[in-house]
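User: I'm putting together notes for a lab meeting next week and I want to include a structural view of one of the chains we've been expressing. I don't have a solved structure, so I'd like a prediction I can at least talk through. The sequence is below, exactly as it appears in our construct file.
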Amino acid sequence: MSMNIPITQNGEWQKLQEDLGETSFLITEKGYQFLAILKQTKLGNYLYCPYGPVLENKAALKGAMKRLRDLAREHGAIFIRIEPTLLLTTKELEKSARELHLKLQKSTDLNPKETWLLDLTGTDDELKSRLPSRLLRYYRSAEKNGITIETSHNPDDIHYLLDLQKALAKKKGINTFSENYLKTELAQPFATLYLVRQADDGWRPKGEEVDRTRHGDIIAAGLVFDDKTTRYNLQGAQSDQGRALHATGILTIQLILDAKAKNKRIFDFWGIAPEGAPATHPWAGFTQFKKTFAGYEEQHTGTYDLILNPAKYRIYNLARKINRKARR
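Assistant: Thanks for the context. Below is the predicted structure for the 328-residue chain, given as C-alpha cells.
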C-alpha cells in the first residue's frame, strides 16, 4: 500500500499486543488499514486504534469506519476509539459517523496530536546542519568528559529507565508505565534501550564535589522504536546529574546519528505542545528543546470516540471519572 503506516498500526505492534495478553485485529483493505485492540474492562469493551485507522485519502474514511463498526458489534464493544493520522476535521468525522448511525465524541488525546519530525535524508553534513550547534559541541566532547552511551536489548535493563522515570514522575505528579509493560516493549525486535553513563573520572559542574555513591551511574536513558522509515523517540528520562551534564541533548544527537546510519528517513520526537500553548503547559519545556532541531511540525486528527451504545458509553465515562477522582 502507498500509505505511510505508523509503527502502532503494523504487524509488529500487533505482536507486542499479543505478548501483553491483548486481543487485536489487523485489517487491510483497499484504501485503508487498521490495527484495532480489543480493550476489555469491567465497565465494558471497546476497540482502540492507536494512530489509526490509516487512510489513503479522505474518501476511505467511511469504509474504514464501517469495517470498525462491524468488528465492534461482533465483539460487543460500546465504542471505538480512533486516532487517524490523516488530518481530518470534526465535521468530516461527524458526517461519516452519522451516515453509519454512530455518534461522535471528542476524547482526551492519547497519542500526541502534534509532533515534531526531523528529516534524516541527504548527506551527513546536511543532517548536522539541522542539529543544534551547542548540543553537537557537548556530544563531541562527551567521551573525553567521561560520558559514554550504551545500547541494550535486554528487558532486565529496563529498570534503568524506569528508575529515572519514577523520580521524574514523583516531582511532576505524572504516571509511568509498569515494569512489565516496558520490559515487554524492549523484548520486541523494533525496540532499543539507550543508556548514558558517566564514568568515575567524568566531568562535573565547577565546584561540585564528587559523589562516590553515584559517580558511574546511568544518568539518562531512552527507549526508541524503529520501523522501515522512521525512528520514534518514545520515552526518556534523566537524573539531576544528567541534566547538569546535558545528557538528554547528548543522547538525542546519538539517537539521530544512529537512525541516519540505519538509513531511516525520519526521526519522530513524539509529541509537542500545540501552537500558542502557555508556558505552563506540561510539555512546554520538552517542546522548546525539540524545536531547537531544524525539523517541522506534523499534525494528526486527535483522539475521537465512535459510539455504538450511547447509554452504556455515558455510564462508562461516569464510572471512569469517579475512579480517577478516587485515585487522586
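A couple of points you could mention at the meeting. The radius of gyration is 21 Å. Confidence is low (pLDDT under 50) at residues 202-215.

User: Perfect, that's what I needed.
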